Prior knowledge:
five-stranded mixed sheet; 7 strands; disordered N terminus
Amino acid sequence: MTTSLPTEQAIIGEPEVVEDARHAESHPAWLRLKAAATALQGLQAKDGSVPDPVDHPAARDHVAVITAAVATLAPLFPHDAAYLAALPRDVARWEADGFGVPDFLDSLVAFQPQEHRVDGIRHLVVFPMYTQNGSPDRHVEALIVEAIWPEFIADLEAGDYGNKLFLSLRLIDFTPGYDTNSAVLFPETVAMREIPTFTWGAIFQDREAARFRRVVAAAADITKLDLPADAAELVADQDLAERTFVMWDLIHDRTHMRGDLPFDPFMIKQRMPFFLYTLEEMRCDLTAFRECVRIEQALTARAEAGEDLSETEQATLRHAKLVHYAVLFDRVFRFALTGSRVRNYDGLGGQLLFAWLHRRHVVEWRDVKLSVDWEGLAPAVVELGDAIDRLYWESIDRPKTVHWLKAHELVASVVAPHPASAWAQGLPQDVLAGPPKGLTDLVLDDEFPLSMFFEALEKKMRGVIDSTAGIRAADA
């Protein structure tokens, strides 16, 4: 591609239609920035460089538009002044270095959105980056995002559920890397020369909530599941769902580094059988579920004793109950059926939860109708969480390979492994005596295939799930 865009300076006298960031997505400078970043992506290689010198004039035009647009938009985001001042310098260095592999470390270090967790505050974000569950290429992406931080979440975070790194966002507008299934913004995805200490990680709860609502509404209809009134309201109300997902993810995220951990779950890059990541994600989800049960019980007891709950406490109580539904339905209906069958650890988590509940008759599939014992749900889910916690606690005293074997044993006791599974049949002695790599190599890509129930449901849900790629709140 050699097509270039006009520079910011070439557009003289164009009205700037907003005075603050509340409508920045309609600002002419943002529209120019977004178009320039999208065009620049077509010139970039996988590593973010622009390798062909023939494309450098066009690349210079595109980055000129981006830099000028950032300067125009920066006053709308005064809380990000340090970042928006550092960003053009990183762009200029990249251009001066001949558009090699980009390095945006300086601007990344200057970007500190976790210091501004105020409901409704917005950020302009421009980085060369890959997007998880989206584009694997480190291309320049541009976003306008908005914080979701209601008062009851601020109180939870300031109290028993502190997590200074956690950031909850809403997608306002974005370049093609986010017109995908990606629902996170993580600093480690940015192209940089060295790895700093990461101080934040963001989840787009609006996308999570919108996907949840569309998928669960369809799945409940297909399976003839009768939803309780509050669960039906959760599925129908985008704002309510967003706040519920913030509460779930706040507790989930902090759990990764808390508890009886036989290993450092995600901070150390290590190759492990994918079902280990299944259990880690489920441990965090079920901890969130368990904590919300505890919060609900404590606040309900106070209310029943005649104590007046504050508005914030009433909101906390309401959302704590809704987290139960969110974990159940998102795991069973969306995660279990989303993505490929190649080492899909999130998918396996949904299969595990469904099978666990089905074997305890909390979930029943009978007469082509799904039903749930709502009274029995919380104790059964907590029981699964306790089983995973027990596995972790016991494995502190075990070698790595024994922990892996016990983890497979736990999952296989609930979800049937593939008939050809070497793990289910018993791994050869030479593999067991060798390095851990040998054990990982013998895990099938689809070690735990979908059950007949999920195979049938997937065929009816495939179009709905595919339709959620790139979804935002306005589309729900």
